[in-house]
Design goal:
The complex is a heterodimer of chains A (307) and B (297). Helices cover 39% and strands 26% of the residues of chain A. Chain A contains eleven helices and 14 strands. Chain B is built from eleven helices and no strands. In chain B, α3 runs parallel beside α8, α6 packs antiparallel against α8 and α8 crosses α11. In chain B, 66% of the residues lie in helices and 0% in strands. By secondary structure, chain B is mainly alpha-helical. Chain B has one domain. The chains are: A alpha/beta (307), B mainly alpha (297). At the A-B interface, α2, β6, α3 and α4 of A face α1 and α5 of B.
């Protein structure tokens, strides 16, 4: 029985070794339901992780539970609840979108009539209602990506695995795809989106998992990651060096650049310290602004720290 | 409030599915149906429909002609003309190997070439299910294309005979011999064709390989067997892949190898034929299971 309160994903000491290379190394994560970004450079182990979530690649060590189901014990049960959108081209080009999505609906276990009906609805949802009877070979990259998303959704999955869903899309297509992904959350469908584009994750996901060379870098809420690693920019005129010295004394990291002081602040307590240093030294405060770092910066800093 | 009559556009959103849902069996059957549709060119252009149905017409013509002649000569009590027997008709059906060369690669190769397999195996489907669906689809079509003309022949002969009831009761053995031999033929060609189709992602290569296997083994067998003297053939006749199911047909219809066949007179020839047939089937299935052992360890 699947308990809805169970976490979306529970991974315990997951390791995958190939001859001469360790793709995943002792990964332990628990993810809540919602929109999750799986972030890492090319070759970080994202696709390997997806293959193991689907039960088509067996871990060397460790265990995986998807929606409360042990993948090793019931891979078919897991795959009945998942939708998967691979990164690479994977569609039969000589068939129509309606036929392909309908067939994949049936392959997901839906009766033929229901699969046809849902294929129509889902193609409508992803914006391909008018093109659904055209062969996929004539589709643009954006339309093919939408078709790939439609086939992942047609089986009404609890969780959709999206591997680089915006790859190859122009800026407009990318925005539309991200808007579609964001909508999935409102339908109660959880998403794990693997990408190396951290902007995409920052725009859409509630939770981020960063992996690098098969190891976990960090896992946490998107907002909390950005808040915890935020920078504060302070303009105290020509007395920037004096502020830096005062901040260093109380244990805050700060640098003066181009007449501005950039202070690394983690949490409200350190913000109070910054305020106190400025007040105690009687520094003129022309500007104080919080600058949240991007996920790129978080990734580079944390991955760099680990290595 | 928007008016439907004014051409309002509605966002229907997403509707969850709460109906019944199958697992492996349903997924396998869905792939089986999709493969049959593809093989017969259904939901595709007329060009894709042309070859299968023309071939069905060709293999049915002898039955229609035979029944026609039987009708024309129905009043000649002394010497009724029969141009083809049920046993010989199974040999006509061996021409369906051409169909296999054309269709099996089309059913197998694009899945690999267009990288559709990862999408399929992300469903409640295993490699074994995939093989069952594909072999089942090609085998079912071959069975139907081999069996339907025999049904035409049987029903036609029965109707033009003096007494349909007598004809039926007099040919009860046909009711099991034909399905059994046709099933053996269909299973053999389906496994061989699909296994070869699984080895490459290029249809033309797979199709040529099927035809090549047919021609090369046929020629090699003829050269090795040489001239049949006094009804003594050679064990080398078993090299001919095309003819192999026909030796089993003879065993079913005659109870022994046909004395005019290249395998005639070979000691335990029938046993060797069955063993070779089973061995090729097992090799074919083994190749398929290996190629679609999708879960990596």
């Amino acid at each position: 029985m699947v308990v809805l309160a169970s976490p979306l994903l529970r991974i315990d000491r997951l390791t995958k070794r190939y001859p001469g290379v360790t793709a995943l190394d002792g990964l332990t994560i628990e993810l809540p339901r919602g929109l999750v970004g799986l972030v890492g450079a090319n070759g970080a182990g994202k696709t390997t992780m997806f293959r193991m979530l689907l039960g088509i690649s067996k871990p060397t060590e460790g265990s995986i539970e998807v929606c409360g189901i042990d993948v090793a014990k019931d891979p078919i049960g897991v795959r009945s609840r998942l939708g998967y959108m691979p990164e690479h081209d994977c569609l039969p080009l000589d068939q129509t979108a309606a036929d392909v999505v309908s067939t994949f609906g049936e392959l997901s276990g839906l009766p033929a009539r229901a699969a046809r009906q849902r294929a129509s609805d889902i193609l409508d949802l992803v914006g391909l209602d008018e093109a659904r009877f055209r062969p996929i070979g004539g589709f643009s990259t954006g339309m093919r990506q939408r078709t790939k998303l439609a086939q992942a959704l047609v089986g009404d999955p609890e969780l959709v695995l999206l591997d680089e869903p915006t790859a190859g899309l122009d800026p407009l297509g990318r925005e539309e795809m991200l808007a579609l992904v964001a909508r999935l959350g409102t339908f109660g469908i959880s998403v794990i989106m693997a990408t190396h584009l951290l902007d995409d994750v920052q725009q859409v996901c509630d939770h981020v998992v960063m992996i690098d060379a098969g190891r976990l870098v960090v896992s946490g809420g998107t907002d909390s990651l950005l808040e915890r690693t935020g920078l504060v920019t302070v303009d105290v005129g020509v007395r920037g060096d004096e502020l830096v010295a005062g901040l260093v004394l109380v244990g805050l990291a700060a640098v003066a650049e181009d007449g501005l002081v950039e202070v690394t602040v983690e949490g409200n307590h350190q913000m109070d310290l910054l305020r106190d240093v400025i007040a105690e030294r009687g520094l003129p405060l022309y500007r104080l602004s919080t600058r949240l770092t991007s996920l790129d910066e978080v990734f580079l800093r944390l991955a760099g720290t680990q290595s | 409030m928007s008016m439907a009559g004014a051409g309002a556009v509605y966002d229907r959103g997403y509707r969850p599915y709460d109906g019944s849902r199958g697992r492996r069996g349903a997924a396998t059957f869905a792939l089986y149906k999709a493969s049959i549709r593809r093989a017969l060119g259904l939901r595709r252009t007329w060009r894709q429909k042309f070859a299968p149905f023309v071939l069905l017409g060709i293999v049915t013509i002898p039955a229609v002609v035979n029944v026609g002649i039987g009708y024309v000569t129905r009043d000649r009590l002394d010497n009724k003309i029969e141009i083809i027997t049920y046993r010989n008709y199974v040999g006509v059906s061996s021409a369906l190997l051409l169909f296999v060369a054309l269709v099996a690669p089309d059913v197998m190769c694009p899945d690999r070439r267009q990288k559709v397999l990862p999408l399929m195996f992300a469903r409640p489907l295993t490699g074994v299910d995939y093989v069952i669906a594909k072999v089942g689809a090609i085998g079912s079509i071959l069975f139907a294309f081999s069996f339907l003309p025999q049904v035409v022949l049987f029903v036609g002969n029965m109707l033009v005979s003096d007494s349909a009831g007598k004809y039926f009761t007099g040919h009860l053995d046909i009711l099991w011999r034909v399905p059994v031999t046709v099933l053996m033929l269909a299973a053999f060609y389906a496994v061989v064709g699909v296994a070869i189709g699984s080895l490459t992602d290029r249809r033309i290569v797979a199709g040529s390989a099927v035809i090549g296997l047919l021609l090369i083994t046929s020629i090699a067998s003829s050269v090795m067997v040489g001239e049949i003297v006094n009804g003594h053939g050679s064990i080398a006749a078993l090299v001919n892949v095309l003819s192999l199911p026909l030796y089993l047909r003879d065993l079913v219809f005659l109870g022994h190898i046909d004395p005019t066949s290249p395998l005639a007179g070979v000691s335990n020839g029938g046993l060797f034929a069955v063993a070779t047939y089973v061995a090729i089937l097992l090799v074919g299935v083994g190749v398929l299971l290996q190629r679609y052992r999708w879960v990596e360890h």
